[in-house]
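Chapter summary example: a protein plus coenzyme A.
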Amino acid sequence: MPRTVRDVVFVDGVRTPFGKAGPKGIYHETRADDLVVKAIRELLRRNPDLDPARVDEVAIAATTQIGDQGLTLGRTAGILAGLPTSVPGFSIDRMCAGAMTAVTSVAGGVAFGAYDIALAGGVEHMGRHPMGEGVDPNPRFVSDKLVDESALFMGMTAENLHDRFPGISKQRADEYAVRSQEKAAKAYADGKIQADLVPVSVRRTNAEAGETGWGLATVDEPMRPGTTLESLANLKTPFRPHGRVTAGNAAGLNDGATASLIAAEDVARELGLPVKMRLVSYAFAGVEPEVMGIGPVPATEKALAKAGLSIDDIGLFEINEAFAVQVLAMLDHFGIPENDPRVNQYGGAIAFGHPLASSGVRLMTQLARQFEEQPHVRYGLTSMCVGFGMGGTVIWENPHFNGGDDK
Ligand SMILES: CC(C)(COP(=O)(O)OP(=O)(O)OC[C@H]1O[C@@H](n2cnc3c(N)ncnc32)[C@H](O)[C@@H]1OP(=O)(O)O)[C@@H](O)C(=O)NCCC(=O)NCCS
């Protein structure tokens, strides 16, 4: 049977506002699966031309797949979101790149012809499921010196990256973090973020008063507008005495969910669905787990090579900010100035938060919005580092590209 690879597009993406993990966080009383269900429902609500029965697959990522993040989330969230029972689903895990891998996995299926339309996203409730909950690493990792012990602790790998690149000082990391907060505050003020957020009703409790009624989460809780270099200068370095990584220049511990619609371009056009980005190439790559933050470098080189593009062809970058040092290492590698206006125009995870397996689709949703506003840009990329020494990069083409005429 002859086969034709089909063009794959990003139709739409939404997310919940991100919360701070823990008893004081907005989602403390909210189930993880309910967060991703909310995102899926919103995606279907705002794409009424899509008959939910046309969805061929639901891939939902979570890093800790137990409790309310267990039970094959793609399937259970699909049913809870009201998709017909005929729509199958599965769950997926590549730690921080979970949602990104959900997208690339279903994209492969779309290109191959197994699916016309699929849903891909992720969720992480780090309050209910702290990083590393229930893990049982094989002792051979350390006893056989396969990895250094620090490889298991992401903050320590960020300190290792500072060691590897002495030119990336704490000062540079803090300056980067301040800019991320400034850009995120500006993006909110300009209304760039809200359009892709779905408000979530939340039960409020407080230690003294007990339950205090219901509220509505409408904005990212972790944001710290007004952050200054001075306010970051003396924060503790929890991962190493006299280290460089702090709560100010790292993403926090967060709760949140994302969802996106991925489709064959011809099907999207036939159904009148939006076409926000066209997939060009993607790649994942492994690096030494002790310096996992450098993962985006080989992943990007691989994705660029597959696309036949160079870094100079990329007009917009959405890079996950697990740690400032890791973004700076990538920018330095490619010779991109750290305040380059093409990079994280709306700010990044240092400001918005990073609920691990959900973040990949946040990057894509933001890139899609930037594509729409900047038709002179042809290509953009989303990239992230991944625990245990990996990176992932997806290159996208702007369907609104106008030939660069208005540049
Ligand atoms: C770094 C980390 C340990 C900090 O956790 P935390 O101590 O609970 O963080 P907090 O939000 O309470 O911040 C700690 C302090 O820094 C302060 N702070 C944080 N960001 C700040 C900012 N932008 N400006 C000023 N102060 C700030 C807080 O106010 C707090 O001060 P306090 O101790 O006086 O209350 C945690 O966020 C972490 O582990 N991050 C990395 C997550 C990760 O590994 N993800 C996976 C990536 S691969």
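Key point: The longest strand covers residues 254-264.
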